[in-house]
Each structure stands twice: as structure tokens, then as C-alpha cells.
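Q: I'm building a small set of examples for a reading group on sequence design. Run inverse folding on the following structure and report the sequence directly after it, with nothing in between.
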């Protein structure tokens, strides 16, 4: 049987469309490829963005900023030693980009200038560390992408 060029073009289009439709359907139905938004209340967080910028500017005025270090016990967060740790409060938020089920938040309660995030709460891989803290009336924000 001989196929003319018009029939060959139609067969090629049908094969191409079938190929594309297979991938569209498999990507939309497979849970492996299910990706959520970064945060549930995206627009509400967008309105708070300018506050975060102001807090980061305040943090840059400090002589010593917040730092962190990976230890056997977990992540150790160091607050500036020139500040009274009794007046420091706020929260530490760890965001896991690959899976929102592992995100968690810890309130800051210090007995010295360090805060330990225990190893049992952390998985190996990439985390976004966000320390939103307040000293007296000034608010500060420390953000960093870390690999644990």
C-alpha cells in the first residue's frame, strides 16, 4: 500500500498530538508531579513584603548579626552577644522547598545567646532559614538558604 504525502502529514500530526496529550494527562494526574504554591496565602504574604525589607535593613545596621552553625545536635543559631538575650523574642521558621509537610516554626526563648534547633526535626537537604526577631522596640529579620 502506498501512502501519499497528504496522508503522511495527517498521520504525523495525529502522532504528535497524541504524544503531547499523553504527557499532559500523565503530568496532571500523577501525584509525583504535584507541586503546591510556596505559601497558602500568597497575596497576604506579598503585602507583608515591605515589612520584611525594612526588618532586613535594620538587621544590617547591627555590628554583629545573627549567625548559624551546623552541629551534631542540630542547627545552632547565635544572636549578638552585645544584646541582652532576655529582651530578644520572635520566631524561627524553617521552610523546606521540596515538601511543605516538613516546614515548622519555633518560638525564640533564650537562656543564653544561642538557640538550638534539634537534629530530629531536620532532614538532609536544602532549607530556607528565616529568623524574625525583636529586641526592645526594633524588629530584625535574618534569612539564609542552608544545606543541612
Amino acid at each position: 500500500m502506498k501512502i501519499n504525502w497528504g496522508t503522511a502529514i495527517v498521520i504525523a500530526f495525529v502522532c504528535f498530538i497524541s504524544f503531547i496529550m499523553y504527557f499532559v494527562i500523565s503530568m496532571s494526574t500523577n501525584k509525583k508531579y504535584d507541586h503546591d504554591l510556596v505559601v497558602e496565602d500568597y497575596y497576604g504574604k506579598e503585602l507583608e513584603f515591605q515589612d520584611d525589607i525594612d526588618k532586613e535593613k535594620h538587621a544590617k545596621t547591627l555590628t554583629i548579626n545573627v549567625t548559624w552553625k551546623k552541629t551534631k545536635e542540630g542547627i545552632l543559631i547565635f544572636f549578638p552577644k552585645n544584646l541582652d538575650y532576655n529582651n530578644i523574642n520572635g520566631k524561627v521558621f524553617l521552610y523546606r522547598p521540596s515538601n511543605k509537610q516538613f516546614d515548622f516554626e519555633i518560638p525564640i526563648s533564650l537562656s543564653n545567646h544561642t538557640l538550638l534547633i534539634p537534629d530530629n526535626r531536620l532532614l538532609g537537604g536544602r532549607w530556607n532559614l528565616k529568623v524574625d526577631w525583636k529586641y526592645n522596640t526594633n524588629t530584625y529579620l535574618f534569612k539564609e538558604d542552608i544545606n543541612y
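The first strand starts at residue 67 and ends at 70.
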